[in-house]
Please model this.
Amino acid sequence: MPNSKSAYSFSNKKEKFDTHIIVVWVDNEAGVLARVVGLFSGRGYNIESLAVAQVDEKLKISRITIVTTGTPQVVNQIKLQLRKLVPVHKVADFKREDKAVIFKEMALFKIVGPNNKLEGALKACKKYNPVLLDKTKKSNVIQITALRREIDKMSKDLKKFGLVSVSRTGAVAMTRGADIFK
Amino acid sequence: MSKLYSGAEIVFKCMEDQNVDHIFGYPGGAVLPIYDELQNFKSIKHILVRHEQGAGHAAEGYARSSGKPGVILVTSGPGATNVVTALTDAYMDSIPLVCISGQVPTHLIGTDAFQECDTTGITRPCTKHNWLVKDVNDLASTIHKAFEVATTGRPGPVLVDIPKDIQFQKTKYKKPKKEKKLNGKSHNHFNQNSIDQLIDLMSKSSRPIFYTGGGVINSGPRASELLRELVYATGFPITSTLQGLGSFPGDDNQFLGMLGMHGTYEANNAMHDCDLMINIGARFDDRITGKIDEFSPKSKKVHIDIDPSSINKNVKVDLAIVGDVKTVLSSTLKSLKQKKSKFLKSNKQKTSKWWEKIQKWRSIRSLDYIGSEETIKPQYAIERLYELTKDKDSYITTEVGQHQMWAAQHYKFNKPNRWMTSGGLGTMGYGLPAAVGVQVAHPKKLVIDIAGEASVLMTIQEMSTAVQYKLPIKIFILNNQYMGMVRQWQELLHDKNYSESYTAALPDFVKLAEAYNCVGIRAKTPEELDDKIIQMLNTDRPVIFDCMVDKVENCFPMIPSGKPHNQMILGPKDQESKKITGKGKSLV
Model:
């Protein structure tokens, strides 16, 4: 972290940044996403990716999954500050290395090119559950689900096969096994 | 079938049920239906301010001095944006406010209608929560919930935005329900084990200190009583933040005075050298800690706070007790009595060396200043004001700057809720409207705004409010013609480049007072000061007191930012030896 000139006092200690996945269950009401995102920007926390959708129609609960980085102290603050928001029900925090949690992102790739290239692209995606969503003579749209860094890699690797457009989601997370987060 | 009420009526029905007796506001197009109903609710008195910021600060003064939430009523657009400073101020200092704002009719929202603004968007980061009510059936429950959110846990401001068409629509009124805990956000999360740990730390410590803050005040008068009991039972020294003044008697021997940037030498050195720091309802603010890496390096730290997010935010602590100060202190006292009934006796010896050290620091007399017979020293003015008012149970508000620090240093508070000052946000212009609010809550008491001439001009228009409602507030201006604190920093840190900190065309405050139809008094010499103060106290009308003080006096002692607690600058004599270095400069 660079030393901020305008800070009133700062610490010279360099602490390690960890990547965390924060999952927040909120009332699906007007402005709730702005509250959560505003908290992050207002307090200078990072957001690497964000995924949000209603998960319980009856109770009107949305699940927000945020990938963030920070020192242990900052990540702790993120959780505590989120829990103070009125529409927040619960907050879970997972380290990216956590083996007990599944993280997935989805990406759509549009490939334009001759047939051999289209096939090459599909083959390259083999490890990541590729689904061919659209096919024409000149183009393919391929869907994959994978980890963030895998999608990063594919976005690079597919260039040589004629990748023209990438669309991807933020990460979503789910614990392994029968237990759910309370 | 039960009676139908309009949205506007429901606003007042809610206020009745929430025991609101005063609201501070200013009418405008989008709240006129609410103002129409005002006359039908006799138990609620409206105080018409001159600017919505004034309404906000007045509501803050009302809340801080009475322990009840302050209520504000403003119109859409500029009405709402004008109140933002006060909401932010209340958010920083944890003051319960409920702000009702009008909004353009729902079908016009988003069309850039006349006096439309995104009020909930603008106020989202400066309120605990806010609501835009789009269905009149939700109105009553929303307002009741607003009061609950504002007053429970760590208090703070909330805002309810009500479009004009909702104010006209009719529905049934819903009484407040005893709501179950807000999404499980209960406030006491400690167990007996933590209390036992605290008592263990206390009994092992030979250099302890209590460091108390506004949380004690916010927890109610009972918390201050319990704090006194605990401090006397332990014999430990105690220091307080700016916001905590009054929770422990300022003239007690165990009290070391305020700590922090302009705190006393003994308080800051004791914080630095202690082996046990017990933080009760304070938040390790940067004006308190100084250089964070060197903050109290040898101590075990205990933090008692109602807000879990305050724990380990700025300073890592060894024992965290999340709970209401009152509840935690009462558990601590109970356990202390059961387990260590002779605590004071057994501990006296253990802490005797510590007290000796503290007495040595005390003997420096860090609040001393060089007196003068020709000009009024600002510290002297506060001292005289204190001496002449100390038997009156007075309420003091301040603006922001040197005068605020001098007031905190030299005015001694013995009761909670008597000291209203903008600490977190540091809002110049806070004190005058806050005094209006305090006087509304306590019509018979003496209310003084210790002010600076620059600050007070930011909200001077509220004198007109004070006159209208016959609120005999006293505005005691320490007039040095400079933005004193700015000037002080420029002198000490910016090579005496007094850029724009001098006000070359001040109004004549005595004439200004007369123009507002209140009383103006001016004091020019130390000799006449006492008589003039007595004249002010004997005036049963609002007074503007123009106290002409030394123009270049600085506020000491001072911890320059970038320095730890044990490297304070003392008065003028000490300055030569401890110049602020280049590095400290960028940190202030």
